[in-house]
C-alpha cells in the first residue's frame, strides 16, 4: 500500500512542526508549505533530508498544484502580536489561503482539515463554550482580522462541502502551548517563561483575572490526528477544559522558575476576551479524546525546552 500523502500548510510553525513529526513517525509522506513568516526551518531540521519529506517555500495566498490525499491547513499567524503586524495580510491568508487549499482539495479529492480557533467565539457571553455557541466577535477591532478570517474560513469549508462534496474537518483549537513556541511571540505562556528565565517582572495585562484554558501541544496534536481520521466533520472544540486566570498562570510559572519575581500591570489590549473554556463533550464522544497532560507538567516540559534555547 502507498503511504498517505499529506500536505501540511504552516508546517514550519509551532503546531505544524509537531504534526509533521507525528506524520513522519507514522511512515507517511509529508509535503510542508510555509512562507516562514513565523515558522522556522530548524523546527523541521530532523526531516529535511528524509526521502518521505519535502519542504516548499510558498505563500498560501497563491494557488499551488500538488497531488495529495490529505491537507492539514494550519498556515496563519496565531499570536496577536504576529497577526496584528499586517492585519490585511492576515485576513488575506485566512480567506485566500483557505480558498486555495479547498480548491486544491476539490481538484484532487483530498480531505482538508482546517485549524480554526476558539477566537470564533470572540469575547464570549457564555462560559464554557459549546460548538453551538455562535460567538460575540467585534467585526472592526484589532483582533477582527484573525477572528473574522477564521470565521470566513469555516464558512468556505462548509460551502465547499455543500456544493462540491469536499471532505472537510473543522477543528476549533483553544490556547495551546509547548516547545517550539517562539520566545518573542507575545503569547502569555512564552512571555511569562521568558520573563521569569531572564529574571524580569511578569507582565499582567489588566487585572490578570481574565481566564484561558491551556492545552499541551502533544494532547492537541493527538486530537488533530483523531479528527482527521474520524467521520466527524466538526466544528469540534479541541482544548483543555481546565480554566485558569492569567494571574494563576503567572504564579505557576514564577514559582517554577524564580518565586520572588514581581508581577506588574500593563494595559489590557482592546477586545481581549475575558473568559475562555472549551466544552469538549463532542471530542470525547466522537473522537474518544481528552487531554492527558496537566498544566503543571506541561509547563515543566515547556520551561525545560525554553531554558535549553537560551
Ligand atoms: P505559528 O505562527 O507558529 O504557525 C503558523 C505557520 O504558518 C508559520 O510557520 C507561518 O510561517 C506560516 N504562515 C503564516 N502565513 C502564511 C502564508 N500566508 N503562507 C504560508 N505559510 C504561512 O502558529 P501555530 O500556533 O502553530 O498555529 C497554527 C494554526 O493553528 C494557525 O492556523 C492558528 O490560527 C491555529 N491555532 C493555534 C492556536 C494556538 O494556541 N497555538 C490556537 C487556535 C488556533
Ligand atoms: N497576557 C498577559 N501578559 C502577557 C501576555 C498576555 O497578561 O505578557 C494576557 C492577554 O491579555 C490575554 C491572555 O494573557 O488575556 C492570553 O493572551 P495570548 O496572547 O497568549 O492569547 P489570546 O489572547 O489570543 O488567547
TrEMBL record:
SUPFAM superfamilies: NAD(P)-binding Rossmann-fold domains (SSF51735). Its cofactor is NAD(+). It is an enzyme of class 4 (lyase). It comes from the Bacteria. Pfam families: Epimerase. Gene3D superfamilies: NAD(P)-binding Rossmann-like Domain. Its EC number is 4.2.1.46. Keywords: Cytoplasm, Decarboxylase, Lyase, NAD. Residues 7-239 form the NAD-dependent epimerase/dehydratase domain. CDD domains: UGD_SDR_e. GO terms for biological process: D-xylose metabolic process; UDP-D-xylose biosynthetic process. The keyword Transmembrane does not apply. Its main location: cytoplasm. The keyword Protein biosynthesis does not apply. InterPro entries: Epimerase_deHydtase (IPR001509), NAD(P)-bd_dom_sf (IPR036291), UXS-like (IPR044516). It is found in: Cytoplasm. One of its GO terms (molecular function) is dTDP-glucose 4,6-dehydratase activity. One of its GO terms (cellular component) is cytoplasm. PANTHER family: UDP-GLUCURONIC ACID DECARBOXYLASE 1 (PTHR43078:SF6), UDP-GLUCURONIC ACID DECARBOXYLASE-RELATED (PTHR43078). This is NAD dependent epimerase/dehydratase family. It comes from Prochlorococcus marinus (strain MIT 9313). The lineage of its organism: Bacteria, Bacillati, Cyanobacteriota, Cyanophyceae, Synechococcales.
Amino acid at each position: 500500500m502507498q503511504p498517505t500523502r499529506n500536505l501540511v500548510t504552516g508546517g514550519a510553525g509551532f503546531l505544524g512542526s509537531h504534526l509533521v513529526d507525528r506524520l513522519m513517525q507514522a511512515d507517511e509522506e509529508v509535503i510542508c508549505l510555509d512562507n516562514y513568516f513565523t515558522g522556522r526551518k530548524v523546527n523541521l531540521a530532523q526531516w529535511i533530508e528524509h526521502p518521505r519529506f519535502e519542504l516548499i517555500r510558498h505563500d498560501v495566498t497563491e494557488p499551488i498544484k500538488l497531488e495529495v490525499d490529505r491537507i492539514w491547513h494550519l498556515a496563519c499567524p496565531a499570536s496577536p502580536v504576529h497577526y496584528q503586524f499586517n492585519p490585511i495580510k492576515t485576513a488575506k491568508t485566512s480567506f485566500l489561503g483557505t480558498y486555495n487549499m479547498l480548491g486544491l482539495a476539490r481538484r484532487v479529492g483530498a480531505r482538508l482539515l482546517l485549524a480554526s480557533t476558539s477566537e470564533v467565539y470572540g469575547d464570549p457571553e457564555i462560559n464554557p463554550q459549546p460548538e453551538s455557541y455562535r460567538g460575540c466577535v467585534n467585526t472592526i477591532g484589532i483582533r477582527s482580522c484573525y477572528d473574522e478570517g477564521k470565521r470566513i474560513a469555516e464558512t468556505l469549508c462548509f460551502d465547499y462541502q455543500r456544493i462540491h462534496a469536499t471532505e472537510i474537518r473543522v477543528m476549533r483549537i483553544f490556547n495551546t502551548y509547548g516547545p517550539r513556541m517562539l520566545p518573542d511571540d507575545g503569547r502569555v505562556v512564552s512571555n511569562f517563561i521568558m520573563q521569569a528565565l531572564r529574571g524580569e517582572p511578569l507582565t499582567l495585562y489588566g487585572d490578570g483575572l481574565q481566564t484561558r484554558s491551556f492545552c499541551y501541544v502533544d494532547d492537541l496534536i493527538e486530537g488533530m490526528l483523531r479528527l482527521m481520521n474520524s467521520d466527524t466533520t466538526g466544528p469540534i472544540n479541541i482544548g483543555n477544559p481546565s480554566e485558569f486566570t492569567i494571574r494563576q498562570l503567572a504564579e505557576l510559572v514564577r514559582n517554577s522558575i524564580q518565586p520572588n519575581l514581581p508581577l506588574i500591570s500593563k494595559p489590557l489590549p482592546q477586545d481581549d476576551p475575558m473568559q475562555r473554556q472549551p466544552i469538549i463533550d463532542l471530542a470525547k464522544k466522537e473522537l474518544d479524546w481528552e487531554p492527558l497532560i496537566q498544566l503543571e507538567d506541561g509547563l515543566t516540559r515547556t520551561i525545560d525546552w525554553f531554558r535549553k534555547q537560551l
